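Weekly structure sync, notes
Attendees: PL (lead), two postdocs, one rotation student
Agenda item 3: pending single-chain targets
PL asked that the sequence for the first pending target be pasted directly into the notes so everyone works from the same version. It is reproduced below exactly as submitted, 227 residues in total.
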Amino acid sequence: MKVEVWSDYACPFCYIGKKRLEKAIEANGMKNVEVEFKSFELDPNAPAEPTMGLYEILASKYGTTVEEARNMSQGIVESAKADGLMYEMDRVVPANTFEAHRLTQLAKKHGKMDEISEALFQSYFMKGENLNDSSVLTRVAQEVGLDSDMVQSFLASDTSTTEVREEEDMARELGVTGVPFFVFDRKYAISGAQPVEAFTQVMDRIQAEQKIEVVADGDACGVDGCN
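Predicted structure, written out during the meeting:
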């Protein structure tokens, strides 16, 4: 089974959804699940250098005060905590995430996609780090086992820009307007950080279908003999 996950590192629900998917996979006991993260930018026009804090941005977007924006964020903090994630929203540095998505493409080619995704989410929501800072990205990449010189050279280029854009285009073709968005075997989809049970139900359904397909493809005996 393959699960494609469109998400953004600046999306608090994406990290929550990632954890719930992992819990569902563990609960299901499946060993042959491939999870691939796909690029999606919530704000492609986010400045390269952060000019406003998170609460200021939210206040401006929703027409509230900064304090009201802070209070709004507490519900997300509590939801994350229930999934074992300790968000530090006061420390979040709103930044353009394009370079982080590019780095994920590099990590994918070296078998470190899951590790880099986990590390980048932690950097953004728990450590208050700027994901558009090449020194931060290089250090995070090195911590998950990528060569720092290779990463520095990669970030200084425009390599994998096409891959990021193609995945974003694919999201639009699929009608994805928000993240996280999970696609299972290109047959079923889940939008949002749904409960673990929602993921489990889809996985159980796919498993049942796979068993039927195996039986259908196998040898069979009928009134005219055996195949």
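Discussion points:
- Confidence is low (pLDDT under 50) at residues 214-227.
- The CA atoms of residues 59 and 69 lie 5 Å apart.
Action: rotation student to compare against the earlier draft before next sync.
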